[in-house]
Design a protein that fits this description.
10 helices; elongated; mainly alpha; single chain; 0% strand
């Protein structure tokens, strides 16, 4: 049901990074209280969003469980390779960072391709652009943190927040079982984990970052499971 897409040419990576650059430049205009308050906001919405998703969940059929497992693997790949980009950035290892970023591209292609069997090639392309925006905001926050630029951190956080709303709107329009507010809350929390992880890696607080990784992993499992459940409800015949 799902297909994995690999980045087989430098052109794919170049196009993705161009989208990332556009996303990093397209900043929000609303002022933020600061990155710490943004993380607190992300964490506060997590419990509400998860409870909404869990309340609507039914016992999963085998096909739904397989879909959830495939999506979990894709989302863990996302956080794994983004983490490697962060590590190699702080270590000033450009060669390793570029390899990790190539894997971010391949993973984003695979996540976007996962919805094509349900919504078509145009949705795949649109979702890929939104994922590029997600990574672009993360990369902007990472570079701002590496440079000690608090203003750029706040700008990147706003960009990440705006992108979360765009993705939530996109998915909610595609699937009525993915309500915008719930998806937005899940993505805000996900973005908050990225921010927290980057700060901890910068400060070399590895014990704290290890806990953040576990929280991050469990949270993307929730995103994957919610998506699989929504697909199974919308496309009953495909999952029967």
């Amino acid at each position: 049901m799902f297909k994995t897409v690999r980045c087989e040419s430098t052109g794919d990576r170049r196009n993705f990074l161009m989208l990332v650059g556009v996303a990093g430049a397209a900043v929000g205009v609303l002022p933020l209280a600061g990155t710490a308050s943004a993380i607190e906001m992300h964490n506060r919405v997590t419990a509400t969003a998860l409870s909404r998703v869990a309340a609507k969940r039914q016992p999963r059929a085998a096909t739904t469980m397989q879909t959830a497992a495939a999506l979990r693997d894709l989302w863990v790949g996302h956080i794994f390779w983004v983490r490697n980009v962060s590590l190699m950035t702080f270590d000033r290892n450009d060669a390793a960072m570029k390899v990790a970023e190539q894997q971010v591209v391949a993973n984003a292609q695979s996540i976007a391709a996962a919805i094509e069997p349900f919504y078509g090639a145009a949705a795949n392309e649109a979702f890929f652009k939104l994922l590029a925006g997600h990574y672009g905001a993360i990369k902007a926050y990472l570079m701002a943190t590496a440079n000690g630029d608090a203003s750029a951190q706040a700008t990147a956080t706003q960009s990440l927040t705006s992108n979360a709303e765009e993705i939530a709107l996109f998915l909610s329009k595609a699937n009525p079982y993915l309500p915008k507010d719930a998806v937005y809350g899940l993505l805000l929390a996900h973005g908050g984990h990225h921010i927290q992880q980057i700060q901890q890696l910068k400060d070399r607080k590895y014990d704290a970052e290890a806990k953040t990784w576990e929280d991050m992993k469990n949270h993307v499992y929730q995103i994957a499971d919610a998506t699989a459940d929504a697909l199974a409800k919308q496309f009953v015949t495909k999952f029967s």
